[in-house]
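Raw record, unedited: NADPH2:quinone reductase
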Amino acid sequence: MTLPDQMTAVEISDSGGPDVLRPVRREVPRPAHGQILIRVAWAGVNRPDALQRAGAYAPPPGASDLPGLEAAGTVAAVGPGVTEWAEGDAVCALLPGGGYAEYVTTPAAHALPVPKALGLKEAACLPETFFTVWSNVFMRGGLTAGERFLVHGGSSGIGTTAIQLARAFGARVFATAGSGGKCDACRELGAERAINYREEDFVEVLKAEGGADLILDMVGGPYIPRNVKALANDGRLVQIAFLGGRSAELNFGEVMARRLTITGSTLRPQSDAAKARIAGELREHVWPLVDAGRVAPVMDSHFPLEDAAKAHARMESSAHIGKIVLEVAGG
C-alpha cells in the first residue's frame, strides 16, 4: 500500500476546554518493530482524552501527543517482526495515543479482529472500555458467577460494558445512574437493580442485599467511604478514576475487621506486555460473546473528526448513554 506523507488529525492546541481541539495536518507515522499502522475509520472518545485535553493526563513517554486511545480500521502497513497481521486486515485496537487522526501506530499485540457481528463503527467502541473492564473487574477484581457486583456510572461506556460482561459471566449486577432513563438503560442491559443516585442511597440498597462482593468505581471522593460501607465482608473495591476527587477520610479499622480489599489501576501507563496479556484474555474469553451477539457496545452518538470539540462537549455534559465515536474515514 502506498502511504501518503500527510494526514488530517485533531490536536490539543493548549490545555483547556473542548474548544482547544483543532484540525491540523501532520506527517503520517510509520510502524516501528512490532507495530502496525492502522488507517483509521472510526475513533472512540473517552474520559482520558478530556483529561489529557485539560492538561491533567500527560501521554506516556514515546506516545503520540494526539488524543485518542482506541480506533478501528484497516491495517495499512506492518512493522518488522509482525506476523499476526497483514495489510488490509480489519482491526480494532488499543492505542497509546494518536487515535484522532487518519493513521495511527500501535503495538500489533494490542489489536484484535473486528468481531463478526459488528462493523468498524461499533468496533471502535470496544478496546478502551473492554480492556479496562476486563482487567479491573475480572483480572484484578476476580468477579465470579453468583457474586453481587455494583458498577457506578452504569450508563457510561464503562458502565454499559461492565453490566453486560458481568451478567454474561453469571454475576448479579447492580448499577447507579443519574436519571430514570439511564436507569432503564441499565436494566435493559442486564442490571437486576438500577439505583437512581439522586433519589436513593446505594449503600442501603446493597446492604439490604447482603453487600456488594465487588464494586467498580470511577467517582472516588465522597463515594470511597460509602463504597466501603456497601461492601460485603471480604468484598473488593476497584477504583479506576476520581471524577469526584482523589481524597477521602476512611476508617481503615473497618477495612481490617471485615477483610476488605481496596485496589485500582489505570490502563494507559501499563507496559506493552501487560496490555498484550489483557488482549489475549479478551480474545479468548470475550470475543466469542461479541461474535455471537451476546455482548455489544452501546452507541450514543457520532461526530466527524473535525467536530471532536462537539464530541467532547457531549461527553462532558454527562447526557450520553454509551459510547461516542468520531468518523475519520467511515466504513
